[in-house]
User: Fold this.
Amino acid sequence: MAAGFASAYGVEFAGGRMVLVRAARRGGVRTVAAAAADSEEARLALRSAAGEVARGTAALAAAAPAALTFVRRLAAPFASAAKAAKVWPGLLDVELPFPVESARCDFGVPRVAGGTTLALAAAIRTADLEAALEGLRAAGCEPTHCDAEAPALWDQQAAEAPPARPGHPRVLVWLGADHAVLVRGRGVEFSAAHVLRASPLADRDAFLALWRARAGQILNTHAAETGAGEIDVWWAGPGAADPDALARLRQAVTTGPALRHETHRAPETFLARALARRAADGTGVNFRTGDLAHPALVRREQSMRRRIHAGVSAAAIVVLLLNGLEGLQRRHRAQALRQELTAAARAIAGAAVLPGQEALMVERALPARDEALQAF
Assistant:
């Protein structure tokens, strides 16, 4: 995770359309464009965003393909985030269908609980990420961030609809143009994500059949894991903008736990809002690292390092100056004390007091002074 931006864009290409959203870290979120991907409106909006990215004043985030991204919860058996960081790659390697060395990985912010360190890991094969970036470039988009879709959706759910009942089981159903994602958890804690490679926007009847087969299993599993008899189900995505289609999907699951349904506002731009907000806050995943890092981010990080080094150098100079001033003040105080000591010694022993011999000459002069001061 990197430092955030004052503003960031989130972009989504799906179903021949492009959605571009702008989020400010200290402000609201607005939709910049929602148009055909090959339209002049889309091109102009992307060109304007690219200009801000080139100047280093904004980020542009896209989502990695959900079907090719793996998200897993990892647990290390010790209460040390530093130790856990050393074993995360090995633990994730067991969970992946490909070697962890061939993937871009992110292990999130660790959390220590009960002697165990927990983290949410996300990974995508490097070759799949490169192919996804080529597809974005072909559409005229060069993102600075490539985020993980499921965690982004879940975080946006917590940001826009905080749980009224902490720890209560929740499910977010995101209906995209070519796939659907079910993300489940308790309160704001992420549990798991499930990707359906179909969409009600592509084939409503086929998706309804798949939904009947899979949704009940997923919801029943979530109820069993959480021990709850009721689950809050939230809907988002372009497929959630059709009330009739959404009603059919809600009525398709008739067995299992009781379900409370809600739909997010402006569901069509939900994912783009999530990507933009996480990029602005610096809280999201970015698979574009190393040799795949965006040049604007590389320049920004180099500039930040130079500013940090300059700040450290300036602080060191200030410390040296303060030390020099303090040493000068100490010398002035020592000189003043020596003068006071010499004056006091001369008041007792007379004017013939040599510097450095004040105590000796006063000690010799005291007997004669005591005799002179005796009563007559």
